[in-house]
Fold:
Amino acid sequence: MVIDLDRCTGCGACMVACAVENNLPTPPVEAQDNRGLTWLRVYQCGNGRTFPDFKTVFIPVPCMQCDHAPCIHVCPVTAVDYDTETGIVGQIPERCMGCRYCMAACPYHARTFNWWDPVWPKGMEKSLNPDVSPRMRGTAEKCNFCHGRLHRAREKAASEGRRDLNPGEYIPACVEACPTRAIHFGDLQDSEDPVAKLSKSPHAFRLLESLRTFPKVFYLSRQDWVKDVGKSRLEMLRKDIYRDSESESNG
Structure:
């Protein structure tokens, strides 16, 4: 996945589409703000300057689908798995015992805890996605790139005697809903895939790269300050050290 931050307007359509596609219920009215289920969150960041130099950016943050996912290694009941064919990090709610080690291990805060049994307003049950089972309370949840859509696409391909999916046959709901086409989805392993080419752009970067979790979600921006937002404190310290060293050598 590649997300063009210069195109994102922060409209939240991706978050709504994610919730509808994956049967994410709204929390009770009395619930605290941080007790809702959110598989995809859009953060707003500023450049720290005042008007007229102030700039802002919206950063959609789903699960990063890391190649070296910390959440996999800390789960004591093997409720987190890694699909070697697709590279998608999956969550198995039937195994999850709610310890939340995975939430503590995720450096992107991309996981959420299910505090409540799912309840929908009367009549809304009829509009639920039949391809995605609602989860019970007491389990951790996360984005899985809409596995219901992946299974549906695979079933369609199998019915037509195909094993491989056609390009564009499977895309997550957030990609389809984005009105500015800021979110791109494809095969990073295929060098000819447009998304793989975007990930190699000089304007591409990943969040917290110094942690070496190797996320499969890339971001695009032509603004240097936006790229700095995605760096960890460790990277910023290293940048300051290198800059000071260069200044001393030049001075």
